[in-house]
Write a structure and sequence with these properties.
Elements lengths: L2 H13 L5 H14 L3 E6 L2 E5 L5 E6 L2 E5 L4 H12 L8 E3 L5 H4 L12 E4 H13 L11 E3 L2 E6 L2 E6 L11 E4 L4 E3 L5 E2 L13 H14 L5 E3 L2 E2 L6 E2 L1 H23 L4 H4 L16 H13 L2
């Protein structure tokens, strides 16, 4: 018996038990044993998908289906197959948190099967620019609906709201809030204990990113579950305000570290030799160079 058949039989065996959280978790556990991906329910039929790329959010109910981000085409197809096991409905809404390929390359798999593709206006511009530069315009599904500051809509019984607080990881990062479930997808606005990519080519701002995270903490309550785009080894892609505050602290310490080094007369070459950010000890491993170079560029171009 092949793997997909075994998974189907396991899923079918428990499907009659209903969609309670306990049984959804059991289903996720069974699937994850034999699949490269994981469909993890969180609350109120909202959950997340992980395989390769930025974390995908999803809502699957009898009244509507929403997907947030798409990773890559192969992974997006895996997600679609997983959704079809629970519902045969057309996907009501596909949302992109921002334009990066590990969040939007899989959009193309949703061509013809979603009613709307939504993103911040700058996210669409960035996606189109990068696709043109890379000669990949033929494998894109661009947003057909954009917003500037806020957007909200109802899918089934769930109210979904999007907010944009200004440039941060890019100049087009949206926060997606499933209000009744009280789950917010942060996209790459949070790298949980992992060194971030700061995309200066797409209008990123370390200084404003700190303010964006402050706004996020003020706009959502202590019961909000947050889905993060990426996490370091041993850390989760789901967290709370403490995790947002920890990443905000990392960015603040990063800014102070580079700013102090510049004031002390250190060259960019010397700054790039920094091995750790004091006061943000949970951020370690590879990738600090991306933070240092982007922050140096931001501070010296002012």
């Amino acid at each position: 018996m092949n793997t997909s058949r075994r998974i189907f039989l396991k899923a079918s065996a428990i499907s009659g038990l209903g969609l309670s959280l306990v049984h959804q978790n059991l289903l996720a556990s069974l699937i994850s044993q034999e699949s490269p991906y994981q469909m993890t329910p969180l609350r109120n039929n909202v959950g997340f998908f992980t395989e390769r790329g930025g974390t995908i959010g999803w809502m699957i109910t009898k009244d509507g289906i929403v997907v947030v981000d798409t990773e890559f085409p192969e992974q997006a197809q895996h997600l679609i197959e997983a959704i079809k096991k629970q519902s045969t409905k057309q996907i009501d809404l596909l949302i992109n948190t921002h334009h990066h390929g590990d969040h939007t390359s899989g959009n193309i798999a949703f061509k013809g099967i979603t009613n709307m593709v939504l993103a911040h206006e700058n996210s669409k511009k960035n996606q189109m620019r990068v696709a043109k530069e890379g000669g990949k315009e033929d494998v894109q599904l661009y947003p057909d609906t954009t917003f500037t500051k806020e957007w909200s809509g109802k899918i089934g019984n769930e109210l979904i709201s999007l907010k944009y607080f200004g440039p941060a990881h890019t100049d087009g990062d949206a926060i997606i809030h499933f209000e009744n479930a009280n789950i917010a997808h942060m996209g790459d606005l949070v790298f949980n204990r992992r060194y971030p990519f700061i995309d200066k080519s797409a209008g990123a701002s370390v200084q404003n990113w700190i303010e964006v995270l402050e706004m996020a903490q003020k706009n959502y309550d202590n019961d909000t579950k947050f889905i993060f785009g990426h996490a370091g080894d041993g850390f989760d892609v789901v967290g709370n305000k403490n995790d947002i505050k920890a990443f905000q602290n990392y960015l603040s310490r990063l800014l102070d570290t580079v700013q102090s080094a510049i004031k002390a007369g250190k060259s960019q070459e010397e700054i790039m030799k920094i091995q750790a950010i004091a006061g943000a000890d949970e951020w370690k491993g590879d990738g600090i160079d991306r933070s240092l170079s982007a922050t140096y560029e931001e501070l010296t171009s002012q």
